[in-house]
Amino acid sequence: MLIGNIGALALRTLFAVAALSIVAHVAAIWTSHSLWRRLSRVAMTVQFVFVAVASAALLFLLITTNLNFSYVVDYTSRGLPLVYRIAAFWGGDAGSLLFWSLVLTLYGMVVALSKHEDSDRMLPIVSLIVTLVTLFYTIVMNVGANPFHRLPHAAAVGNGLNPLLQNPGMTVHPVNVYLGYIGFTIPFAYAIAGLLLNKTDATWLRVTRRWTLVSWLFLGIGIIYGAHWSYEELGWGGYWAWDPVENAALLPWLTATAFLHSSIVQERKGMLKAWNVVLIGLTYFLSLLGTYLVRSGVLWSIHAFANGFLGVYYLVFMAIILVFTVTLMILRWPTLRAERQFEAVVAKESAFMLNNVLFLGATFAILWGTIFPLVSEATTGHQLMVSAPFYNAVNLPLAVCIILLMAIGPFVAWRRSSLTNVIKSIWIPFVLAVVLGLLTTLWLRAMYTTPTILATSGVIAAYFAILTVAFEYVQSVRARMMLTGEGWLTCLIRLINRNRRRFGGYIVHLALAIIALGIVGSGSYHIQKQQVMSVGDTATIGVYQAKFMGMGVSQGPHGETRTMYANLVIARNGQTIGVLRPSATFYENGNSPTTNVALFSRPLRDLYVVMLGTASNNQAIFDLHINPMVQFIWYGGYLFIVGTLVSLWPEKKSAIRRAELGVVVDNLYEDLADLEYDHRMGKVDRVAYARQKAELEQRIALSEQDRQVRRERMERELKEEIGRLGTGSTTGGASS
């Protein structure tokens, strides 16, 4: 009881701490005094400490199964394994809000203690925004979803965690989704700080790049693990059903992907400023929308907590964020003008712009399909659901275009390229991709079913992206070997080490292309068969034969469950390869029965079997699926993690480069470096290279002259000011 009281007190005190923190942040912003700045940083640490105390208290109650508290009763039981008692922390509404606050205050504390360019002005504003968000969650927890609500009398037994959530993947999936959602608060706060300070250069992008990448990585991991959980646990044969909550996680990931690409253009070229502010604002808003859909219950989903009361709080909070952000963007729109314009249609900058358009097209198509039931209910009084064919018809062509652009993009030069050079660079990997794609399609058609033109295009596009990444690595290594004479392995390691952002990005591209192959294979060539079988019957699906050998029943370790299972002997082309045991579990506490999938997985296909039920005369009903290449999705997911981690790893910048470019990177020197790289990689021909280099060198010379003139003027003005101060001091001393 004492631990619960401590947790409840910590939550109530957090409200006062957050309010006092707001005072400290505003004072630091208003006065710019170092004392208030220190208090602002301390306030972020104090917030985290109180949330950590409350979190530790709730974890203790869950682990010890203290049935005096309603949250513990709702999500744990004495027979529940320890890992799932811990997972219950974020398995329910109130606990997940506390977990959200824990991560948010941790992020806020780390940011507040950091130092970077213009941090004295930016950090108090960032801390203020993070604290306001924390205050919102504090109010919600104290008023609508208190995890320390005590029962009048201790319950005899707990309800236990939802059986569908008792899966190792669910200890990973929700945590990563939360970490992704919450993490986008930081770049959003910096964007708002930049707008409020009229500082719309690339500073906030450089500071928040890793925050954005980490959040994007966590959300991506959450999406992949969620798909894997759905595949293994729900027993419908697939992994993505375009469920509203699934869509809600995908939406901010798409806009964050566009933002990561768009931010590169602003960092290097000073362009797409408005795009970046809009994209990060949209990403944060969609993160809030995803949380709202989970908690409001306005749309049915197997993932939703369905607490309409909390949905009202989120709706009001989202409205405030939207109105404030849009108003601020409008007021600061003149400061978001690009520092330079597009120089050519065929250029890397234009490719990034097209990338943004495609990602936003997919985002708004998914968003419209997700909220359409709400729109239809508001206009007709009936919720009309949007099914998978709509999403597939709109998004799959867009996905193929994005993959094609992902394949072509690395071969397009910065500033100015030519269609001839691009075609010359890509024709070999493209022809190879067409050949490999058609061969793969013919194999899949012979093994499974007739493909569509879109499926064939998807396979070719995925191979094209894979091959262009391979060609980019090979050409980069070859160019370095010619310059340095080093061995290919040494060149490869040093290339990645010195250009982690670029080559880590290529690994991510490779991962997404492999995932795309898995999606096309399992989505377009999937075959299914349902059959009622008696003992001794055999079902044939694809190259597999499943012989039904009979059923049995087993009891759970504490008598809380009964599992009915079937034994199926699996053969391939007449040769026995193993036994599968699909089953269904029934719960004594009245929870709905769950199906337990039986899987026979190989790199190129999965045999997926579900026992749907029983019939008379000891018969059973089976649902059999073959999902070609579905394992590629999970392989690509792991490679996605590796590529993002490579991009995240800090690069070492030489002292020469820092001295040459100064604190703020000189765009002209960057352009010259890009031109040299593009020429060595064959993206710019010799004539265009010579012309562009001469232009850049002339502009650099003029820029250096102007810089020297400004430096001499500043030195002269400084000497004059020092002289005036010295004269004033002498006069004052004489008169005294």
End-to-end C-alpha gap: 73 Å
Tell me the fraction of residues in β-strands, as a range. Answer: 5-15%
The tally of helices reads 22
User: pLDDT below 50 for ≥5 consecutive residues: which ranges?
Assistant: 654-665
For the CA atoms, what is the radius of gyration?
A: 30 Å
- Quaternary state reads single chain
Give the % helix: 55-70%
Shape: flat
Query: Quick one: biggest sheet?
Result: 6 strands, antiparallel
Total strands: 10
User: What's the mean pLDDT score?
Assistant: 86
- Label the structural class: alpha+beta
Q: How would you characterize this protein structure?
A:
With 736 residues, the protein is α+β, with helices and mostly antiparallel strands. Helix 9 packs antiparallel against helix 10. The longest helix has 50 residues. About 2% of the residues have low confidence.
Summarize, please.
With 736 residues, the chain is of the alpha+beta class. It has helices spanning 2-31, 34-63, 70-75, 82-87, 93-112, 119-143, 173-183, 185-196, 203-233, 244-269, 273-296, 308-331, 348-380, 388-408, 419-447, 453-484, 488-498, 500-524, 631-648, 655-661, 667-680, 686-735; strands spanning 527-533, 538-541, 544-555, 561-572, 575-580, 583-587, 594-596, 598-602, 605-615, 619-628.
Describe the SSE topology.
Elements: H1 2-31, H2 34-63, H3 70-75, H4 82-87, H5 93-112, H6 119-143, H7 173-183, H8 185-196, H9 203-233, H10 244-269, H11 273-296, H12 308-331, H13 348-380, H14 388-408, H15 419-447, H16 453-484, H17 488-498, H18 500-524, E1 527-533, E2 538-541, E3 544-555, E4 561-572, E5 575-580, E6 583-587, E7 594-596, E8 598-602, E9 605-615, E10 619-628, H19 631-648, H20 655-661, H21 667-680, H22 686-735
Helix pairs in contact: 1-2, 1-6, 2-5, 2-6, 5-6, 5-7, 6-8, 7-9, 8-9, 8-11, 9-10, 9-19, 10-11, 10-13, 11-12, 13-14, 14-16, 15-16, 16-17, 16-18, 17-18, 18-19, 21-22
